[in-house]
Design a protein that fits this description.
The complex is a heterodimer. By secondary structure, chain A is of the alpha/beta class. Chain A contains 23 helices and 19 strands. A 6-stranded parallel sheet of chain A has the order 2-1-3-4-6-5. Chain A has a 6-stranded parallel sheet with strand order 10-9-8-11-12-13, with helices on both faces. A 6-stranded parallel sheet of chain A has the order 15-14-16-17-19-18, sandwiched between helices. In chain A, helix 2 links the parallel strand 1 and strand 2. Chain B is an alpha+beta fold. Chain B has one domain: 2-Layer Sandwich (Alpha-Beta Plaits). The longest helix of chain B is centred in the first third of the chain and has 11 residues. Chain B is globular, with a radius of gyration of 14 Å. The chains are: A alpha/beta, B alpha+beta. Strand 7 of chain A pairs parallel with strand 4 of chain B.
């Protein structure tokens, strides 16, 4: 950059590089053009993935962040470019994903004048971010990026937004100190009658005593285990105390499915045993999870006989939904490592037998009919997921969309490695899978992680972000896309069948030829002709270099069971 | 009759601080009896005093949410005596 002044845009790119940024997912436009010009000057040092819609960029960043364990960076211009990021920010906020969103903004002199492509994105993003900040001076840029990175990653991770005015991008960095605040400095601790101070060692000791005395304990593992890298510590706790464990949707892959103490998934469509017997447990140890309503069902009927130990890094989550006997606001790994040596092995064979017997009942009533080969019918979604699990050895990174296929993927894919499951859990954003898989594959390439990345989507969800096939084509990433096509918005149809007397209102979908669309994008694709072709087609998909789309026509009216109907207690879980 | 809670926040003085606090109150459907924003001798810092009538559980949630504010440097919360004005007229007469 000899011979020219460093602008705010240059400073932004340099600051991102210094922080550890490898890639930006974005889409250029008028108010962010100086940053794109700075990127052009730095080409070769910082990769940029050009998406086809800004929502794709934020989902890319989410997939990247979940695999790479560092903030995903996404960028868009002002106005619609910025507002198109908001759904992904809300999604990342719900699912604790560190994102730094950078948006261009009109020049400072035009703020608040309803200028072309002006939107108050800082105001709009406040409930959907941990921190939103508008940069109006080039000398603020380095501090803002450093602060954004720290806030996105510390404590409970989440999204932040930096909105940078065009004049701040174009202005020259003078090095003049603005004495920006050090947001890491709290001059005094939080003092509140409502938030008592905790003694971690005492809390861990009491938790161990409760667990050692428990006759029917159950461990609930959430995404906090994966975020803190506490998978080994979790296994140690379970094995030392011989404690059975179930995972939340986002906690899946924290424990390999073949672990002898693993019971399956919690939640509305989770496994029968852990859901049903939550209400018979006498002690629940909840780690890195937030008692989402999909997990608890009707709250006044949840775990009435249990004393609850809640380990969660976000103090706001402790006591938010369920009353806790012991609440420990700390990192999951720190707590589990402290807890493990205090646990005593107790067989509790009767309790574990009861849990396993319920899961066997589920296998017999729900799963067996869906995995039975029927030559006259298309494959079931369960068959597709189980076959995918088989051919990948449970080693793939599965990125699912939202709906029936999401629940089948969560339940029937045999996750063997940590951080193998990415989905939109809290917000339930259809259209998530394809762009998130692109981000995950970008992260895998950067980390030299050779696990295949497979996006699993329904015919509804894939069409919400199908334009991102263009990104996939351009980046030539080895993302495999499996579209489970039942010509319905399946989960809505299922609810209409069960709770609206089969009045199917606006759920039937006339679909395009997905393979023809892929032909337009020059992405190899095929349609599976039937069950016997399923395995070979999946093998062809996995062995073909680069991207691939497999369209799998599946049974039209397959339902997802078990199911806890909305507003019902976990013990009202249905098998049919 | 809900007790009144007094919450005093000290924070870096950024434009988004006040809207974030207002959003936390609004999302919890709480209307403050008092919401005072003041900048003292140091223009980089602000002090926000909130008094709100709510039960202990709501106060817990409110403080926990406010503690998430990135700009926050200090939070003091005290539960005061029950607010005489807290009960709506209909509720009071029914009682």
């Amino acid at each position: 950059m000899a011979g020219r002044h460093r602008t705010g845009a240059d400073e932004l790119v340099e600051s991102l590089l210094s922080a550890g940024t490898e890639v930006i997912f974005g889409y250029p436009g008028g108010a962010i053009m100086p940053v794109y010009d700075a990127l052009h000057r730095q080409r070769g040092r910082l990769r940029h993935v050009l998406v086809r819609h800004e929502q794709g960029a934020v989902h890319n960043a989410q997939g990247y962040a979940r695999i790479r364990r560092r903030p995903g960076i996404c960028m868009g211009t002002s106005g619609p470019g910025a507002t198109n990021l908001l759904t992904g920010l809300a999604d990342a906020m719900m699912d604790s994903t560190p994102i730094i969103a950078i948006t261009g903004q009109v020049s400072r002199s035009m703020l608040g004048t309803d200028a072309f492509q002006e939107a108050d994105v800082v105001g709009m993003s406040l409930p959907a971010t941990k921190w939103s900040y508008q940069i109006t001076d080039p000398n603020e840029v380095a501090w803002a990026v450093e602060t954004a990175w720290r806030i996105a990653t510390e404590g409970r991770p989440g999204p932040v937004l930096l909105d940078i005015t065009k004049d701040a991008q174009q202005g020259v960095v003078t090095g003049t100190s603005l004495r920006p605040p050090d947001l890491s400095t709290r001059t005094a601790p939080i003092r509140s009658d409502a938030l008592p101070e905790q003694d971690l060692a005492d809390g861990i000791g009491r938790a161990a005593a409760l667990l050692n005395a428990a006759r029917r304990p159950l461990v609930l593992a959430g995404q906090g285990v994966l975020i803190s890298g506490a998978e080994a510590a979790l296994a140690d706790v379970l094995e030392r105390g011989r404690l059975p464990c179930a995972c939340t949707l986002l906690g899946l892959s924290a424990l390999p499915v073949d672990h002898p103490l693993y019971l399956g998934m919690l939640g509305m469509h989770g496994n029968y045993g852990p859901n049903l017997l939550t209400n018979e447990a006498d002690v629940l140890l909840a780690v890195g999870m937030r008692f989402d309503d999909r997990v608890t069902g009707r709250i006044d009927g949840y775990a009435p006989g249990a004393r609850i130990i809640h380990i969660e890094i976000d103090p706001a989550e402790i006591g938010k939904v369920v009353p806790t006997s012991i609440g420990l606001a700390c990192d999951a790994r720190v707590a589990l490592e402290a807890l493990a040596p205090l646990l005593e092995p107790r067989a509790r064979s009767e309790w574990r037998s009861a849990l396993e017997a319920r899961n066997r009942e589920e296998d017999r009533v729900v799963t067996a009919p869906l995995i039975e080969a029927r030559e006259t019918e298309p494959p079931s979604m369960v068959q597709v997921i189980r076959k995918l699990s088989e051919v990948t050895g449970g080693r793939a990174i599965i990125v699912s969309d939202v709906g029936q296929h999401q629940m089948h993927a969560a339940r029937h894919y045999g996750f063997r490695l940590p951080r193998s499951h990415i989905t939109s859990g809290g917000l339930g954003t259809m259209g998530f899978a394809l762009p998130a898989a692109i981000g995950a594959a970008t992260a895998s390439a950067a980390a030299e992680d050779d696990r295949p990345v497979v996006a699993v989507a329904g015919d509804g969800g894939i069409q919400m972000s199908i334009q991102e096939l263009g990104t996939l084509m351009q980046e030539r990433l080895p993302v495999k896309v499996v579209v489970l096509d039942n010509h319905y918005l399946g989960m809505v149809r299922q609810w209409q069948e069960l709770f609206f007397e089969r009045r199917y209102s606006e759920v039937a979908m006339e679909n395009p030829d997905f393979t023809a669309i892929c032909a337009g994008y020059r992405i190899p694709a095929e349609r599976v002709s039937g069950y016997t072709d399923l395995g070979p087609a999946l093998e062809r998909m996995l062995s073909t270099p680069g991207p691939y789309l497999l369209e799998v026509p599946v049974r039209q009216e397959e339902n997802v069971f078990p199911m806890i109907p909305a507003g019902h207690s976990v013990e009202e879980i249905r098998l049919s | 009759m809900s007790p009144t809670h007094q919450i005093v926040l000290e924070a870096w003085n950024a434009p988004s601080v006040l809207p974030r606090i207002a959003l936390v109150l609004s999302r919890r459907r709480l209307t403050p009896g008092k919401l005072e924003f003041r900048v003292g001798a140091d223009p980089d810092r602000c002090r926000i005093e909130i008094s709100v009538a709510c039960n202990a559980e709501a106060a817990h949630r409110l403080c926990a949410q406010l503690a998430r504010l990135a700009e926050l440097t200090r939070l003091d919360h005290r539960a005061l005596a029950p607010a005489l004005h807290a009960a709506p007229a209909a509720e009071a007469s029914a009682a």
